[in-house]
Amino acid sequence: MAKNKKKKGFSISGIIAALILLGIISEYFTVIIIIGAILLVLGILYLYSKHKASQDGNIMQDSQRDKSIQTSHEQAQNLFIKKEQVKRSIDILTDSINLINSSNNLGVVLRRYDMAIDSLNKLSTYTENDLNSLGFRLKQPVQSTLRKLQDNKTEILNQAITRNLEHEINSVTKNELKVKHLNTFRKMYENNMLLPPENKNFLIEQYDIYASKYVPQTYTQIDSTNHTVQTLTIYDNKSYDYHVGPDEFIGKFYELSSLIDSSKDIEAKIQACEESYPLLKEFCRFCLEEDDGELPPVINCRDIGPEMYMRLGKWDDVERVIQICSDANAYYPDNDNEIRSYYTDYKRIATLALSYIKDNPGCLQNKMYDALHVTEDDREVLKHFLRCSLQIKKEKSGKTNKLYLAKTSSKNNFDKTVEFIDTPDAEQYRISEKMRENLNGSKNQ
Question: How many CB atoms are closer than 10 A to CB 51?
Fold first, then answer.
């Protein structure tokens, strides 16, 4: 090619030289020069166009070769991706079927069943030839495996339920723990959205069968006379437990007694007392028969109920609840003479004190003993009334209090202070303790 270019270059230069020579000897020198120049330009343009065409041809060939290489690469890459996708689906399918047939966890089986169906649906987009061309040969056609899983879903899940139940039972040795595991399993899956209704029914049936083997048999007998509940529990290993406890009647009475003792609201205390009174007679009968003719030293509705009504000045209610307690034999071995005597003295002193305070509003608390001319026997009763009554209002005045009639007889937190007192009375006692102190004082006298 270089030789050809050299020859072409030599021919053109020879022609030009010949033209110049002819021009020199010719009279048409100018014309010849112009023609020569034109021929020179045309020759250059021709050579350039040939060179350009050669370059464009080479570029086109290179482009086509690159495009062909790129297409081959993309095809190889797509084939690799497709092969990996199929491999991934087959791996998931294989692992899922193994777990479906062997796992002791029903939750795992439910999830893996869905994953297996999903993998089969993806594989079903390929024909058997497609899979073979990708290097995969399945033992069964994809559609056949899919139908088998779908048609046998109920049986597959029932088998998983049975395996899981047996696993829960065998994981512990004590029967109570077996029952606990069974209960946990049932609660976990009986409302599970992934478990079909027919499998839930099977689960409950199997639970009942297994639980009946390990739940102890319990027999209960209620003795309404002794207010006891006797419970006999027999286990499958022939061991048993026997327990005797109070019945609902005793539990209710002590619950009300606790409310009477702990409540800081006077209305709540009174309400609990009133609810206790219908139970009091039977409670006293039970205690006297079971405790060798003795009553508990403290019966809150008996001790606190009358005291509350006395503080409020509700004399009819005081007499009513004392009579209820008396009819219930709640003052045994004594009768109600002592409480009635104390109540009579309290009412008499309260009436006298209230009348004096009404006529002398603002009178001093420490002067009341002399003002009312009480006897030594009545002094303790007056002292208790002035400290605890909810019928009077107190205003601090030096080391004592000014006394007024209270507009209302109500109080919430009366274990620490009396209504309307700014400073708590240091000598205030709990109600039941104060009541027993006064009663004991009357007995000693």
Answer: 10
